[in-house]
Amino acid sequence: MNLTRRHLLFLLPSAAVAWKYVLAGTPESAPNYSMANHWWGMLIDLPKCIGCGNCVRACQMENDVPEGYFRTWVERYHVSEWDMENPKVDSPDGGKKGFPPPREEGGKNFFVPKLCNHCSDSPCTQVCPVGATFDSPDGVVLVDKTYCLGCRYCVQACPYGCRFINPKTNTAEKCTLCYHRITKGLTTACCESCPTGARQLADLKNPRDPIHEFLKTHSVHVLKPHMATGAKVFYNELDGSVR
Amino acid sequence: MPGVEGFMYPNEVELQWSVLIVLYPFLTGLVAGAFILASLERVFRVDAVKPTYRLALLTALAFLLVAPMPLQLHLGHPERSYEMYLTPHRTSAMAMFGFVYLWYLMAVLLLEIWLDYRRDIVMMAQSTTGLKRWIYRVMTLGSSNISERALAIDERIGYLVTVIGIPSAFLLHGYVGFIFGSVKANPWWSTPMMPVVFLFSAMVSGIAAVMLLYMLATWARGQKIDMRCVDTVARYLFYTFIIDFSLEMLDLIHRIYESDESFRSLDFMVHTKLYLSHIVVQIVLGTLLPIGLLALTQVLDLTELDRKRIYVLAGCLTLVGIFAMRWNVVIGGQLFSKSFLGYTTYKMGLITREGLLAAVALMLLPFAILWVLVKLLPPWPESNPTRQNGCV
Amino acid sequence: MFFKDAGHLFRLAAVFLIGLLLFLVLRNTLVPKSFGQYGHFRGSALADLAARPVNFAGHQTCEGCHSDVLEKKKDGRHARVNCEACHGPLAKHADDPASVAPEKLDAAVLCVRCHEANAAKPKTFPQVVSADHSNGLACDTCHQPHSPAITAGGAK
């Protein structure tokens, strides 16, 4: 068949559209990674958390998190008897150096690690005025620090308090689910350094990921479900007193 | 941790929005309120407030020009703020700001001022010399047509602009209320009443500001204050204040009655950290006292001097009260933890980019601009003899 | 007739139009090319974020060279504790093992982080009050970290 100008007129635009879809699968510097095959989340198995603070330190070391700010942190809860609305909570330096022995004995005590919940319906991306924070096609909520104005609206809109403004870049910052690691087949820094396996990266689109079986067989919660954020960090045995 | 009581999420300890973000809704509120007062004359034909018409417009412009400045000073990257015009995120109320602001500045306020002043501008372009002459000539856009017909067209268009301007003014300030009211993460802010409360308190502050400015400027120029005008403005201030107060009380009573998850924490905060700014300054001094004073002028037959004194006092208290309201919303909303288990403190800087000095400077700047505008485009009824329905 | 007396309005409209055109031109030049590629954000931001260098090598990388340690670990209580959980980020060492040496670890600080007794830790987790536990001896006197169970002859 002779390729005439008319053929090209039809072929080229369709090729351009097709190329766009090809590109959609591959962030350029991770050659074997296709965004369409992943939907990231995390599983936090609370009965296993020992409050060692490894995750907080590892995140800080992996991501250059400035002192005094936290992409992830650990809280310690003390719940006395039946009053679920008034737990005593502390998080000394985010739990980075572990926790001192508690002052109050008795009651129920436990640790809760927290991080960005990478909400599928995130209120923070909803309010960004310019599109500097966004939901990636593979389910990670990220911040483009070359585009962020530092207006702090997203920090206000996050119900979980996981965002902050980096004093060096004056832009919004938070947990990236170690995007630079997970796109290379590694796990996040916090999960890598957790000694008890309390934190585990989960790929909800991977049929072989243990998360699927876990979600079916355990009592699993998300933080602040009434906010309907579509949070993708799942907590096993989350106590009702956890804020 | 210093300044923290109870437990706060580690990233919550430092406040995100400073006194500059308190100042911004205060300024746009004055703009909206001043404009509504101007529209009372133009659209609703309340002749009595005519002497304040042009002054109200210039006041609105002066404050509108300063309004983006606290925002720019607050941004982490003000040099990127143009991105809001290029790639506005349609789900974000804040993205509206650039367009609403530009629309209101260009298509409403500047247009209305230009149309109303055009005859004076053309005449001054012909009668002045030097730099002023050039400024006026630019403002005429090269047209010196001030025939009857042209002025009649201006009047008609100006009327339409004011009619469009009223919902535009509501949008300019209402969206700020929505910015706060739509944040589900923050129970102090999240309420559908927020834009309405913001709007009515804006109208109260704008009316009070123009009333005070009119009285001050007239006294400074050695002229007689038009009491019929001021009495009418004060009456509108009184009515609007009643509505504003009722809305705020409704919100309060509703919160106390429903007593949801956040109530205990918020209640404690209002009674301790916000006691001075909320209960004393906003409610007692800034709302109840001015309403009471204005009520006296409506109910009793007071002398002109007494009425003037009360108006000045009530006007000043009103402005302080409305500023306190903005403070309590913005700062108050960040003093408590979203875990409802703790509180932090606002450490306002003094000479930092977002500190007290910057706020004071930005608060004074509109008056400096207004002074220049008044010199350039005199708003006094005496210098506007063509307007037949003045109340001298 | 109307047009003559409304001349100033047409001039104003012209000013507005010029402004609008200017805005459109600026918009075309200033918006980043990849904006909108995957959504309302700069598409190349994904590549920027993914390109960050890695500091933790990941246990599979460690086990590639240190299979002997893996052998020792795999039947003990620390089998699932990843190397860098104790040894810290070692991607630089993995890239250049000869010139970049891992830091020497201090058992006194390291072990108690996990194993100091604390009411908030799960009851089944092995924890001790370190002050009463070892009479001042270092943890690795009796426990070998890669296989911490104590056998008859003390630490191996």
Descriptive account of the structure:
The complex is a heterotrimer of chains A (243), B (392) and C (156). Chain A has 243 residues and is an alpha+beta fold. Helix content of chain A is 23%, strand content 20%. Chain A has helices at residues 5-24, 54-63, 123-127, 153-157, 179-182, 189-193, 211-217; strands spanning 40-45, 72-79, 88-90, 108-115, 133-135, 141-143, 164-166, 171-173, 199-203, 220-221, 233-236. In chain A, strand 2 and strand 3 (88-90) form a beta hairpin. The longest helix of chain A is centred in the N-terminal third of the chain and has 20 residues, at 5-24. The termini of chain A are far apart. Chain B has one domain. Chain B has 14 helices and two strands. Chain B is globular, with a radius of gyration of 22 Å. Helix content of chain B is 69%, strand content 1%. In chain B, helix 5 (96-127) packs antiparallel against helix 7 (148-181) and helix 7 (148-181) crosses helix 8 (194-220). In chain C, 46% of the residues lie in helices and 0% in strands. Chain C has nine helices and no strands. Chain B binds chain C through residues 82, 85-87, 89-90, 106, 111, 114, 118, 140-143, 145, 147, 149-150, 153, 157, and chain C through 1-2, 4-9, 11-12, 15-16, 23, 26-27, 30-31, 35, 40.
